[in-house]
Specification:
The chain is mostly helical. It has helices at residues 14-44, 61-72, 81-104, 113-141, 158-169, 178-206, 214-244, 259-270, 279-312.
Length: 319
């Protein structure tokens, strides 16, 4: 996948690899978080209600952005940003770092290796970062009553949300909804990393640009963004619903028992298209997010690998 230095190592120091993945995706997150807010609202709108039986407050990406900004102010478009950055840093630091090592170890060269490695990397990252995604979803759904959709948790902030959930549900409550997050990120990660790797190899071998040009990564990331949006939206809807649902006195979800139950209920009451709610903002957000994160990650790793190569080839270097 990566075009490394001529004779340099392909593996980076693990903390550095983790940091590069985290920085790349956090940078993309800041720019795309308003679309994540809108996507969350669209996916919660008309929850378990037949099509046409509820009032549609949010009718599209641009109208939803305008509505949120008008009701909550410009800061409302960045709701949940701190939790989103925490999630992106943890999840993608682990995910991209793990994937780069499977790649360096040659595991991605086996048949289906890229898909399996991408899915495994995504599952690991999603599990570790699940509490941050839970809080992010709560905060992004939270708004004034006039434009509220879905359950309102009324947290005062990120720290308050973590403390409130822990006191009410214990440690396991912080991982509530992880059964929806893991398949979501597994599918998205497998599609993203496999298509990005394959597309970058294809573009590089086609020799459209210089082998070290960032345009190779840019084209590959655009192709990857389309694949992720198409495959991941149904899983994204289910994940949002599981994370945002209220819980009863026994710490069980009031609306869904788990991934399969949510899938069946949404399909039965909202139709198959209910699983594609928010498809437009999912694509509008994921495409630039994938482009930005994959491009930044690839460029940062290229620079780090080249720097490591220069250091290792200096006279007297002991590596």
């Amino acid at each position: 996948m990566l075009v490394s230095a001529p004779a340099g190592p392909r593996a980076l120091w693990p903390p550095l690899d983790f940091s590069l993945g985290a920085v790349a995706c956090c940078g993309a997150c800041v720019l795309t978080n308003p679309l994540e807010v809108v996507k969350t609202r669209l996916q919660l709108q008309g929850e378990l209600a037949a099509r046409g039986s509820y009032r549609r407050l949010y009718r599209g990406v641009l109208q939803a952005l305008w509505l949120v900004a008008g009701a909550d102010g410009l800061r409302g478009l960045q709701k949940g940003l701190t939790a989103a950055l925490l999630y992106q840093g943890l999840m993608n630091g682990v995910r991209l770092g793990f994937y780069s090592y499977t790649e360096a170890a040659g595991l991605t060269e086996a048949p289906g290796g890229r898909l399996v490695s991408g899915a495994a990397a995504g599952a690991l990252g999603a599990f570790i970062a699940s509490p941050a995604y839970l809080v992010k979803t709560h905060l992004q759904a939270q708004t004034v009553e006039t434009i509220a959709v879905g359950h309102q948790h009324n947290h005062q902030g990120v720290l308050s949300a973590f403390v409130s959930i822990y006191r009410r549900e214990g440690v396991t409550g912080l991982w509530r909804g992880v059964n929806g997050a893991v398949p979501r990120v597994m599918v998205g990660s497998a599609a993203q990393l496999a298509t990005f790797s394959s597309a970058k190899d294809w573009v590089t071998h086609a020799q459209w640009f210089d082998p070290h040009s960032c345009l190779n990564a840019l084209i590959a990331a655009m192709i990857s963004g389309v694949a992720v949006a198409i495959t991941m939206t149904p899983f994204d809807v289910i994940s949002t619903r599981l994370y945002n649902q209220p819980v009863d006195e026994f710490k069980r979800g009031r609306l869904y028992c788990g991934f399969v139950d949510c899938l069946m209920k949404v399909s039965e009451t909202e139709g198959i298209m209910g699983l594609y709610k928010g498809m437009t903002p999912v694509f509008v957000r994921l495409a630039p997010h994938t482009v930005l994160s994959m491009l930044l990650w690839d460029v940062l790793r290229q620079r780090a690998l080249l720097y490591t190569h220069r250091i290792s080839t200096q006279p007297g270097a002991d590596f």
